Amino acid sequence: MFETAGALVAFSSAANAGITIPAGDWTVDIGGNVNAFYTNVQTDTYTHAGVKTSAPDANTIGTGLLPAAFGIGAKSRQNDLDVAFQFSFFTGTSSGDNTLGGGAAGNNSLNIRQAFVTVGDASWGTLKAGRDLGIYGSDAILSDMTLLGVGNGGPAGGSSTLGRIGSGYIYADWKGQFQYSSPNFNGFAFAASVNENFKPSSNGLAATAGTSNSSNMDWEAKATYDFAANDVTGRVWVSGITQKTESTVANGSYTSSGYDIGGKVAYQGAQLVGYYYNGEGLDSQAALAQGLFNGNGVKSQDSGGYVQATFVVPGVGTKLGASWGESLSKYNSSFDIKNESWIIGAYHPLTKSLNLVAEYTNQRITNADATGSTVAKTENDTISLGAILFF
Questions:
Q1: How many CB atoms lie within 10 A of CB 142?
Q2: Distance CA 276, CA 29 (A)
Q3: Nearest residue to 141 via CA among 45, 208, 38, 237
Q4: What is the pLDDT of residue 16?
Q5: Is the dihedral of CA 87, 138, 332, 334 positive or negative?
Q6: From CA 109, how far away is CA 90, in angstroms rounded?
Q7: pLDDT for the residue numbered 1
Q8: Rounded to 5 degrees, what angle do the CA atoms 65, 67, 70 make?
């Protein structure tokens, strides 16, 4: 059952399907992953005058884009209905920073990202209630090759790196929701959800978590079409999101909205992915955590996308990949941010469950004023080596 994690597992041709246990009228499914990566991050910053400052290298051992996860779910057919539930627990492998309460105890926390129930039938679709991955941007992250690796790295202490989040797509995030998913109509399907309101980050420029309210809901929808012809398979999708934020701060009320479009096609071990998004009040480039929804706290102009190519070496099974992407976020004269990254990676299936991973990422973040003059630039070079085991 492990639905979202199952989709992540399906990303790897080397991963198996999980542990299935018959239990009376129920079928119990247990699955997840454990991963660890050595990550070296070199960071250079530049002033408006071009003066360069190099920070000491950050060397860490921790989880990649996927936190370590354990999921348990079950499904049953009752009264002509398919019923199921899912719980998934996520954590990191980094011991963190002693100054932040790390060390022996660590400063990672157990994060229950999935807790939901579903009911439905193949004839009319499925209803979901609970916490799960959001709809908008979900295909972008599920198609990202760095799900098996690190992508844009970061300091120790967290349970996840960023992959390509914030430099190619907005994070779909894990949301309390009611969702309807349609049956599959010869490859075509659609889904729609109403989710809890995502307040602006307290790092935002205007409305903050302390002043905005939750009187409005977050609405999302997506349509997909899957196709197959001989050895060619693929998917195209389009989705949208809208949410109104109301605040007591002057000019702090606004509506976040956006759309995206993407596609991927595979042929005999080769796969191409293309993705684009556009909207207002979507990103958090001006806040501390890039790529989180509505984090800027203002109605910023946001757009971006990525392209990716991967190829599985015949007879060896190693997947080689390269991708480029960027996210743009602008608000009046306050900020004009461009977050761009190149990523190359190699993902080798040592066994059907265990992948060895090597990646290199070059990320450049620039911030320009209203005249277009560069006032700040940060460049991160990340090298990561590690392994991820699916079960």
A1: 16
A2: 35
A3: 237
A4: 39
A5: positive
A6: 8
A7: 36
A8: 145
Q: How far apart are CA 374 and CA 361, in angstroms?
A: 22
Per the listing, tokens 């209203």 go with 370
Q: What is the dihedral sign for C-alpha 3, 188, 321, 232?
A: positive
Distance CA 185, CA 224 (A): 10
**Cα separation, 58 vs 156, whole angstroms:** 8
Phi first, then psi, for residue 147 (nearest 5°) are: -55, -30
Give the span between the Cα atoms of 176 and 305, in whole angstroms. Answer: 26
Q: What is the Cα Rg of the chain in Å? A: 21
Q: For the stretch 234-272, what's the b/e string if a residue is b when 16 or more beta carbons lie within 10 angstroms of its beta carbon?
A: bbbbbbbbbbbbbbebeebbbebbbebebbbebeeeebe
Q: How far apart are CA 244 and CA 254, in angstroms?
A: 6
Per the structure block, which two tokens stand in for 91?
Answer: 């954590």
pLDDT for 202: 55
What residue ranges of the chain have pLDDT lower than 50?
A: 1-16, 100-103, 105, 156, 207, 209
